[in-house]
Amino acid sequence: MADPVAADRLRQHRPHSGRMYDYYLGGRTNYAVDREAAETVMRRFPAIRVTARVNRAFTHRAARFLARDRGLRQFLDIGTGIPTAPNLHEVVQAEVPEARVAYADNDPIVLVYADSLLGSTPEGRTGYVEADLTEPAGLLAAVAAGGCLDLSEPVALSLNAVLPFVPDDKEPYAVVATLMDRLAPGSYLTLSHATGDFAPEVWAEVVGVYAQGGTPAQVRSHAEVERFFSGLVLEDPGVVLAHRWRPDPADGPAVQLGDNVVSLYVGMARKE
């Protein structure tokens, strides 16, 4: 018989944002309940799969930029989600084999697949901790205890596509500020965030689909996303739509996409 406690912990009976994202990307680590919810989102916003792919392309570009052009050797990816090759450590270790990458997520199903996140190069290292973004001090303590990263040295903090699931009542700005306050000078913050700026009624319906599935969500305006970088030094071109942040020809014709199709702000900034 199935273990009902384990099933509840894995949320197999309710749609989960990470598994829905996996479905948008064409992955197979999802259940019927996730696919049903994702299809409902797609009926309201048919471009959601494009948004997911553009987000993933930005995540890779940003990681390569930090490793290759800014000399970062430590990366902390919070809200890791379902592993999908190439994972962040594969991207950065292709540039810098000695890079260290720590992953953190509070979804127990990610732990089930965490082996995919631990295939480091011999020169580098990877690690995984189960921790909650809304408890930033505890999360950093778990990362430090894991020994993968040295938090006294600069770290590239990645918060891609996770902050929409930290609504205002969970104090997302305080969460990000706490994380950055405790990281060393020279650290970087990279994030991506869905926005309703171009289709507010549509995105209100999308947020409603997630809420009905038990996942509070919130899209934010350009000004609200920019606020996450308060006190930090933004890299050019600032907070922009994902397909306009240092586009790479290898990503294909994404730069030609309409802004309303992407509906995703991104940015990167340095702690001095």
CATH homology-level superfamily: Vaccinia Virus protein VP39
Task: Supply the number of structural domains.
Answer: 1
Determine and state the CATH class: Alpha Beta
Number of strands: 8
Task: Point out poorly predicted stretches.
Answer: 1-7
Following the backbone from N to C, one meets helices and strands in this order, namely HHHHEHEHEHEHEHHEEHE
Write the layout of secondary structure elements.
Blueprint: H1 4-9, H2 17-24, H3 32-44, H4 48-68, E1 74-78, H5 88-95, E2 100-105, H6 108-112, E3 125-130, H7 136-146, E4 156-160, H8 172-182, E5 188-194, H9 200-212, H10 222-226, E6 233-234, E7 240-241, H11 259-262, E8 264-270
Parallel strand pairs: 1-2, 1-4, 2-3, 4-5
Antiparallel strand pairs: 5-8, 6-8, 7-8
Helix pairs in contact: 2-3, 3-9, 4-5
What does this entry look like structurally?
The protein has 272 residues and is an alpha/beta fold. It has a single domain (46-270), classed as Vaccinia Virus protein VP39 (Rossmann fold). 39% of the residues lie in helices and 15% in strands. The relative contact order is 0.15.
